[in-house]
Amino acid sequence: VEGEEVITNQSTVSVTPTEIGETEVGLVIQDTENRTERVSTTITVESPPNITLESVTANQSVISEAQTVSLTATVTSDAESDETVQLELIRDQDGQQLAQSNVGLNSGATQVVTFNVTPDETTTFSIQAPTATPNKTITIDVAELTLLNATIVTQEPVTTDETAVVNATVSNTG
User: Fold this and answer.
1) Which residue, 60, 172, 171, 53, is CA-closest to 117?
2) % of the chain beyond a pLDDT of 90
3) How far from 110 is each of 22, 45, 113, 119, CA to CA, in Å?
4) What is the spatial distance between Cα 163 and Cα 35, in angstroms, rounded to a whole number?
């Protein structure tokens, strides 16, 4: 209006729909002279994608110390559109995240993700995805080596920086 001061304010309004389907979102604006105006728009609320962590397997469940094991997670999606899911490998003993992987899932697809770990003791791992259910756990048993016997092959005295030969038999009863 000519001769009137125009004041522009900008605000953000957040809406959290609770039902799936179309919802009308409206906003009523009132000026300093109590004049009101209503504006609205219709939003479509879709159901969240159903992302499932199907399984977690290990290429071996009993390993020796310092041995690497591969943990494989299978993730599926029945979403109507492509989704990206972040998988996290967690060591359950202390809750530490050891690795993560972003997995692209096409509509209705299944993906396999592998994490390699070298536990130094028997450890339970969880593979989690914030948008997937359920989380899965797997325990890897690290077997301790047992010395069964040892025979010294080198018969002469050995001095510093020389090599002595010892034959040893160890058992890994994991």
Assistant:
1) 60
2) 26
3) 30, 25, 10, 28
4) 97
Phi, psi (deg, nearest 5) at residue 117: -135, 155
**What is the pLDDT at residue 35?**
86
The residue-averaged pLDDT of 41-55 equals 83
Cα–Cα distance between 50 and 143 in angstroms, integer?
A: 39
The predicted model gives 4-21 an average pLDDT of 74
| C-alpha to C-alpha distances, 76 to 50, 79, 103, 107, 127, nearest whole angstrom | 8, 9, 10, 9, 14
| Degrees, nearest 5: CA angle 50-83-59 | 80
**Cα 145 from chain centroid (whole Å):** 32
Q: CA-to-CA distance for 172 and 60, rounded, in angstroms?
A: 14
Residues in the chain: 174
Residue 23: the pLDDT is 85
